[in-house]
Amino acid sequence: MASSTERVPGLNCPVTADTVDKSREMHVAVIPEHSRMRFNHKYRHDLLPKDTDRPSPEAHLPSLKKILLTYNVHEKYGFHKPHRHLDELGENRIFLGTTLTEPLLCRWTRAQHIDDVDLNEIHAHLLVFYKGKLIPYEYHKGLHTGNMPKECLDELLQYFEKHSLCFEFALQALLPEFTGRLMSEIDLGNQTLMLEAKYLNCLKPGNTTGWIVSPQGCTVGETHGTTPDGKHVTVNKGAPLPDDLSGICKLLIEQDLVHSHCLTA
Q1: How many domains does the chain have?
Q2: Residues of 144-158 as b/e, b for ≥16 C-beta within 10 angstroms?
Q3: Can you give the pTM of this predicted structure?
Q4: How many helices (H) and strands (E) in the chain?
Q5: String of DSSP letters for 213-260
Q6: pLDDT tens for the chain, residues 1 to 265
Q7: Whole-angstrom distance, CA of residue 265 vs CA of residue 262
Q8: Neighbouring residues of 74: CB distance < 8 A, sequence distance ≥ 6
């Protein structure tokens, strides 16, 4: 039976060092996405599947949508298709996103050491269901304003447990600055860049990774940038990346992955 969810670190109470450890462990095991997942070992962030094609759990979206609508939290929360980005996250490190507006609106996510992060000034962005609890595995800078009733969290947990949806869905704390925009994520190896799909050049919006809930239904909010034939792309795999966003954008432009006008957005 799913546990009570009165306290979910990073969602309705502060992130702690113990939370970070569980998040890190949750972020770094390799399970093929097409496999049926069975978890007989301790928390590992590497239990998250890699981003390749796998059976879609979308048939559950109408029921999950109904739960969010019932508690009127659909404008603050959505659902995500969890996947890992790193084979190794490193001890005392978290995958932390930041919203930037220059040179373009985007979410830049990198592995950062907790000594360089104020844990009181971040929130859980993506949370997976594991062993009767919601465990954050990706964070975002800033505090989230979306209060979710305990009853809503409990109902979600019960649904995930009943339908064996561990690691098939993550709860996503929505970022208001991206409302109404179709976003696409570009894999940079040890970091990611989420930007508006309209800036993609030789990439296209690929498999859906995020859904937005409304009374009208569930719509696509996030995708992965893939090649026209649907292949996953990792930019500069194993090579150093620029340490600033403008440099990364210029690299993507040079490789014809995004349009040059993204720098003048």
Answers
A1: 1
A2: beeebeeebbebbbe
A3: 0.87
A4: 4, 10
A5: EETTEEEEEEEEEE-TT--B-BTTTTS---SSHHHHHHHHHHTTSB-G
A6: 555 556 788 888 888 888 888 887 777 543 323 232 333 333 344 555 555 544 457 889 999 999 999 999 999 999 998 877 766 677 888 899 999 999 999 999 999 999 999 999 999 999 988 878 888 989 999 988 778 898 999 999 999 989 888 778 889 999 999 999 999 999 998 899 999 999 999 999 998 999 999 999 999 999 999 999 988 888 987 788 999 999 999 999 999 999 998 887 6
A7: 5
A8: 65, 68, 213, 214, 215
Q: Are 144 and 123 in contact (CB under 8 A)?
A: yes
For the purposes of burial, counting CB atoms within 10 Å of the CB of 163, is it exposed (0-12), middle (13-18) or buried (19 or more)?
A: middle
In the numeric block, which tokens belong to residue 216?
Answer: 């009208």
Burial class of 32 by CB neighbour count within 10 A (0 to 12, 13 to 18, 19+): exposed
Q: What residue type is assigned to position 104 of the chain?
A: L
Say if 184 falls within a structural domain.
yes
Domain that holds residue 164: 17-50+58-264
Q: Where are the beta strands (DSSP E) in 18-90?
A: 77-80
Q: What are phi and psi of 177, to 5 degrees?
A: -65, -15
CB atoms within 10 A of CB 256: 11
